[in-house]
From TrEMBL:
InterPro entries: Clp_N_dom_sf, Clp_R_N. Pfam families: Clp_N. It comes from Nonomuraea turkmeniaca. Transmembrane segments: none annotated. This is Clp R domain-containing protein. Residues 9-60 form the Clp R domain.
Length: 151
């Protein structure tokens, strides 16, 4: 689906798939796209968030959701488990729409440089109950400030 290009956008998407795999998730969602964007230093700097902090925040959201179901989860071992690769077709509808929007918002000439920025703007526009909206709120990212930095 994403070919073998090594553009910044491709690197972000592949990083998002790797983040989903590391978490043991079967599908790539918008929250994974945000983690993938944090592999892009310029975008991460604009968001004011580091990758490790975002991973911890997402883990905290998962634990809170499980507590709401009456399940208490202790500390998760730091040793990574071997999870299968997430297939490139296993995207949530929100993730697919965000990627398509980022692609359509750029031209063929500007896509390599602009698509990560467009993807970030698309994710910032998401609202609850989308998982990335919850993650953005958990990370206390100021949506308006980030949009102005990208303008």
């Amino acid at each position: 689906m994403f070919g073998r290009q090594k553009t910044p956008f491709h690197v972000v998407i592949m990083a998002a798939f790797e983040e989903a795999r590391l978490r043991g998730d079967r599908r790539l969602g918008t929250e994974h796209l945000l983690l993938g964007l944090l592999h892009h230093q310029d975008v991460a700097r604009s968001l004011g968030v580091d990758l490790e902090g975002a991973r911890v925040a997402l883990d905290d959201l998962d634990k809170a959701a499980l507590r709401m179901l009456g399940l208490e989860v202790g500390d998760v071992p730091k040793t990574p488990r071997k999870h299968p690769r997430v297939p490139s077709t296993a995207l949530t509808s929100s993730a697919r729409a965000a990627i398509n929007h980022a692609i359509k918002a750029t031209t063929g000439r500007t896509r390599a440089a602009e698509a990560p920025r467009q993807l970030a703007l698309t994710l910032l526009a998401q609202r609850r109950p989308d998982p990335v909206a919850q993650l953005i709120d958990q990370l206390m990212i100021d949506r308006a400030a980030v949009r102005s930095r990208f303008a």
